[in-house]
Amino acid sequence: LLGWGVLQPLVDNPEVTDIHVYDYKTVVLQRGKFSETTGLHWPNHEAYTSFIDRVLFRLGKSISTQQHTVDASFPDGKRMCCVHESVCGSRGPFFTMRVPRVQEATLESLVAYQVAPPLIVNYLAALVRTCEHTYMVAGETGTGKTTLMRCLGTQFKADESIIGVEDTPELNYQHPYYRSLVSRSANTEGVG
To answer: Most buried by CB count within 10 Å: which residue of 17, 50, 92, 107?
Structure first.
């Protein structure tokens, strides 16, 4: 009841960060823009939807035709998104999960992992060090947004005030003046 069932081997694997489930028989690892089928599956559609319901229940959430998309995070940093089958068709529901892994956060690692060329990395780092700019980083899943922000966060001054606004908290800077805010979508009544 408390584990990850079919997904447990992936959650336990330190090399896995992004898991996408398209339907009960299709579990995929996402590595940047590349997908890799795992061969893992649930016995049937009902077992898969029951798994999603149990995971959401642990967080005090549920999915339905009125609340068709649910984003959530666990205290240990795992993030998930569920999309109800009424939105994604006969294959769904869709389920994605990001498992946070401790990664080296340095400017050099951005260059080594080819997130950006040295000229761009050094330019962005210089902007961060000036303490005179507001940043917004956007992009598709797996493109390196969080990695970029973590590495640039190593350039914050000790007395600087930092506010992060995320859909699901993931940055978790270890800085004395860091505040984390969470964006909220409107609920079914249009409030939020």
So the answer is: 92
